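BUG: 3D viewer hangs when loading the predicted structure for this chain

Environment: internal workstation, default settings.
Expected: structure renders.
Actual: progress bar stalls at 90%.

Input used:
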Amino acid sequence: MTNGKYTLEVGMILDSKWVILEFIGKGGMGEVYRAHQLNLKRDVAIKIISQEWLKSFDCEPEEVESSLDRFRREVQVMAQILHPNVLQIFDEATSTIQKGDEQLDIEYIVMEYVPGSSLRATMSDEGFYPEEDRTIDWLTEYFLPLLGGVQVLHERGIVHRDLKPENVLLAGNSPKIADFGLASSCFLKPITRSAHVMGTPPYMAQEQFMDLRRTDHRADIYSLGKILYEAVAGKIGSDQIPFKQARLKNPEGRLFEELDRIIQHATAVDKKARLASVEELAESIRKILNEAGQEAPIEQKGVSAKPAAQKSSRRALKWVAASMAILIIGIMSYFAFQAERGGKSGMVGTGPMAPRVEAPSGESVQKPTRPGEVSQVPKALPDTIKGKDDTTLYLVPGGEIVLPKNFNPAGAEKVKIDSFYMDMTPVTIHQYVEFLNQNLDRIKVENGVVKGDGEMWLLLGEVKPGYEPVAYQGGKFHITAAQHAACPVLRVTGYGAAAYAGFYGKRLATDVEWLYALETGKPSSAEGRAALGAQKNLPIPSPVMLYKPNALGIRGLDANIGEWGIEYLPDQSHKDSAKAEYVILGEMFKSSLGKSEVPAPLQRYPWEAFENVGFRCVQDAR
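Structure tokens produced before the viewer hung:
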């Protein structure tokens, strides 16, 4: 450790109190060492960070300060908690050390030293399924205590944001939550996030990936659901697509069927559909343990007591549960039979005169009147909808647009636009890689060219020097660096854009629709228009959420990249991608003949690909 590779050297004494014993590893924002505290004669863990160390990664000054703020936040967060399943903090200080001919300013925290391994060591790479006893033991010994620790964090207003097996250390058999570098507390002022991804993608909720600041405790619930999934199904591989809902494959048996339900509920992509709290997650686990005949731990202030195994009572309870199930099925069958005979069972809402039920905005409500007759009550279109690719689409209300001279298809001057929905952002690398991996049977890769259905879809390789976001290895497509996953996919062809849109039940926008959304979404204030104009100076790559929303909520229109679209035709034949004429849209591709400020479409062949052209999708409003 004396070769200068690490900030601290073995044998040095820090602040006349801590003797450095060994380098443990790099974690989150800094380096971690084992040290010995001279006055109390105990081993501790020391985590340090230095501005020089951060600058070695070419960070901007504001990035350096932001990272230091996250480091200080870790100290404040951990100092609030005293719990057997949360790593304890002992001290915090700043110091100046001599490193060769230089003096380095460092900040450090002193923590409880846990010599054991992490939660990962308790989990089989193949998963516990279908072994019920091993699954139950793991849930009671490790997972419920982990939930107890997370619950205490949430009760203090703290969101961890990077829960994963490697960040849960083991002191004997007791799990301890560690590494709070990404934590968020309601007691602390927010930190401006950088463009870098914060977290670990396989365990990250989608909303955390898009905007770290907007996450809440439900992001931790998603991570816990992914940990539970790994324990049952096996380790998540690096080739598996993150941010999606997890589910067990064909689970058999009551225990695993219920665990699958919990996993799906905890890892729902929409955070509003997830379990509402860690307490609710723990209660669901205890419930299925009780059904399995296991005396579930009793929660006491976030601490779960370890139960004794009750295998004989477990089997007895299974027989009771089976008997009760048969009885319930019999009762339900009886009432269903009575309902079919005319609704005389007395059950509310099962007869032909059921009351009208309100539907969410944007859906038609069916009001049964008498058998065979249904009346439709139209509702207003919702402002947003979810696409099949889990993206958000914003409503572009219909209207008329007067076309400029350099933007005049088929000689029309005024065009009527029907309402439609447009993707909030350009399609990201993550989304496009997911699409490719779901269509591998349609794809061939030759010399860096991705062909689907015989047509060129995407060009692999460097988009710009040093930026090669997508790789094809082992028969699958991979994102080469997590921080690029939220950036727009580029070097995609018109065919590749249309294939993606069609796969998810959408289409490319016409040039007139694109122009209409651009004009309709212009902010009313000069400041707002200036903010949108500044997007043309964003570097490539930039995450899509760095684009500013226009008045419609749509981000990145006419920004620093062009977008594939199709030429508008009055007879609507443009909606058939096989007959469409492809165009590129955006200020940067303005026709040299046009003097107008409005960008004119540029016709291109659909097999072409460009280093600064991506795409987004639209969907007809029904």
